[in-house]
Design goal:
- Strands 8-9-10-3-11-12 form a six-stranded mixed β-sheet, sandwiched between helices. The protein has a four-stranded antiparallel β-sheet with strand order 2-1-4-5, with helices on one face.
- A hairpin with a 2-residue loop joins strand 1 and strand 2.
- The protein is α/β, with parallel strands linked by helices and 255 residues long.
- Helix content is 37%, strand content 26%.
- Helix 4 packs across helix 5 and helix 5 runs parallel beside helix 6.
- It has two domains: 178 residues, 3-Layer(aba) Sandwich (Rossmann fold); 70 residues, no CATH class.
């Protein structure tokens, strides 16, 4: 439904063996929201993000994309999809940007970006290539369409990875520490692209350690600690007047 949240997570738990990584996370991202997820290493940030598109399967809880809940059934160690075709269809509405780019090294930049609308959306290759070129233009990579990933800087590879997501025009973008693998001098070019996309009111859930960027760009900030949301709210509250002593300490260490 049009008025449904883009993403709704309810009482999400995830365990790996004896390690209880997520402990009842409930989170809403509405259309146009930019939700920044912050927290220390091991707090469950990336696991939560990967559960949204079932790259990790929840142990319990529910996840709905634009009002459609994943149909899950009990399986070994937790929940498993009851309808793989539903998962495939819902995943087509979500674009994932990984820490380490995940570009196919045996394809050019244009080939990387073209393959996704072909295989995810079923577009004819010529139409998919048009989309790919427009997406590369959008992230300032049009002149690198014929380049191989190995010949690009980390910042250029990550911008190509963002273009690959844009080529399917997703309902929401999931960004998992998109600058953590970059040299410091390359971080700015990737953040500039994400800032521009946020200004277009693209729905995003962004796991990041860039506190100043989160403060400037996010509409809502979530602080995860030990697998729980310890505090959440608008950036001016989270960064300007945090209530949790753990959050205050975290922000002080990140400064």
């Amino acid at each position: 439904m049009q008025d449904d949240p883009a993403i709704q997570i309810t009482d999400l738990h995830k365990s790996f063996g004896d390690a209880h990584v997520l402990r009842g996370v409930t989170l809403t991202a509405r259309p146009g929201d930019v939700v920044a997820v912050i927290g220390g290493s091991g707090s469950g940030k990336s696991t939560m993000l990967r559960c949204i598109n079932l790259l990790e399967q929840p142990s319990s809880g529910s996840i709905a994309i634009r009002g459609e809940e994943y149909r899950m059934r009990p399986g070994h160690g937790g929940l498993v999809p009851a309808d793989p075709r539903q998962v495939q269809r819902i995943r087509a509405q979500l674009g994932m940007v990984f820490q380490n780019f995940n570009l196919w090294q045996h394809r050019t930049v244009l080939g990387n970006v073209t393959e996704v609308p072909v295989h995810v959306l079923g577009l004819p290759r010529a139409q998919a290539e048009d989309r790919a070129r427009a997406a590369l233009e959008r992230v300032g990579m049009a002149d690198k369409a014929d380049a191989w990933p190995a010949h690009l800087s980390g910042g250029q590879q990550q911008r190509a990875a963002i273009a690959r997501v844009l080529a399917v025009d997703p309902l929401a973008m999931l960004l998992d520490e998109p600058t953590s693998a970059l040299d410091p001098e390359l971080v700015g070019e990737v953040l500039a692209v994400i800032r521009d996309l946020a200004a277009e009111r693209r729905t995003m859930i962004l796991v990041t350690h860039e506190m100043r960027f989160a403060r400037d760009v996010a509409s809502h900030v979530v602080y995860l600690r030990d697998g729980r949301i310890e505090e959440q709210g608008p950036p001016e509250q989270i960064f300007g007047d945090p209530r949790s002593p753990h959050l205050r300490q975290f922000l002080g260490n990140a400064a």
